[in-house]
């Protein structure tokens, strides 16, 4: 049974008369705003505890009453898919903190938040394992044709002949783009497959056991598979370009578990359809939940509906971290897992 918001140690004192925190008192309607929709259990708890209203990330048309309510909002709880734009921040004059469900916060305008002194938290670490497991699943699937051969069996094709031979994954050269928390969890798993790992980051990581390659094109050239684990946002926009895909080459495989925006999706579609690279495993897309039409019929691509962190256990941990960040902010104005803005 999941711990309800009200019984966690960090949240228990909220709203209790003898521990009155920073005014206006937490628990007042519209102190907390949901920008979502969010995970249903989290929604339930935010409604029960804070009577938190919900708006969409765009929130173009709101009733005057709702607009008035927004002027009292101190904390927004949102998810990586929605975030808080500068325009929405403008409608929230009392906003102090944004609590993001998910490690990625590229949908929130961090420059606007910084300027206004608005704090931001995310949910790092608790999802490393599941996202890394997803990256490995994609690699194995693309190399060994797991999804494609499943389709083959279901279509009754096995009775007319064997599925074509696939390619060995163990021992491949894997380039990790973004050796952060998730990238490191991926590297740890790849070692179990005797992969030769190297990585590209903005900067070399002192003491890393893996060779650093300071040019992404060069990393692609030296790798059989590239795994994208870099954070999304303006800095990483279309990092995986036509040139990088060209360097990866006709035997190369691309796996992306970070953000669709990190890959030039048009270039990727072209590379997959013309054989510039051999295959791809994608958990994320530029315009989710819309997936480029051209990819749907390709057998050399595995397409997942952004399920990297989507296990019962990890989502429960993410939800708890969101609630703990929220409680901490309302109690003492600090976040447990703040993002450095
Ligand atoms: C979630 C994610 O699916 O953490 C992230 O950045 O992309 C995923 O874990 C997403 O954040 C849910 O909104």
List keywords for this structure.
Rossmann fold; disordered N terminus; alpha/beta; globular; 11 helices; six-stranded parallel beta sheet; 2 domains; five-stranded parallel beta sheet
Question: In angstroms, what separates the terminal alpha carbons?
Answer: 35 Å
Q: Look at the structure and name the CATH superfamily of the largest domain.
A: NAD(P)-binding Rossmann-like Domain
Give the topology string: H per helix, E per strand.
EHEHEHEHEHHEHEHEHEHEEH
Radius of gyration: 22 Å
Form type: globular
CATH domain fold name of the largest domain: Rossmann fold
**Low-confidence blocks of residues:** 1-28
Report on the structure:
Helix 10 (265-274) links the parallel strand 9 (253-256) and strand 10. This protein is α/β, with parallel strands linked by helices. It is 33% helix and 13% strand. The chain folds into two domains: 32-126 and 314-332, NAD(P)-binding Rossmann-like Domain (Rossmann fold, 3-Layer(aba) Sandwich), CATH 3.40.50.720; 128-303, NAD(P)-binding Rossmann-like Domain (Rossmann fold). It binds 2-keto-D-gluconic acid. 2-keto-D-gluconic acid binds at residues 79-81, 101-104, 127, 306, 308-309.
Quick structural summary:
The chain has helices at 40-50, 64-70, 86-90, 110-116, 128-144, 146-154, 181-191, 216-222, 242-248, 265-274, 312-332; strands at residues 32-36, 54-56, 75-79, 97-101, 119-121, 173-177, 196-200, 225-228, 253-256, 279-282, 301-303. It has 11 helices and 11 strands. It has a 6-stranded parallel β-sheet with strand order 7-6-8-9-10-11, sandwiched between helices. Strands 2-1-3-4-5 form a 5-stranded parallel β-sheet, sandwiched between helices.
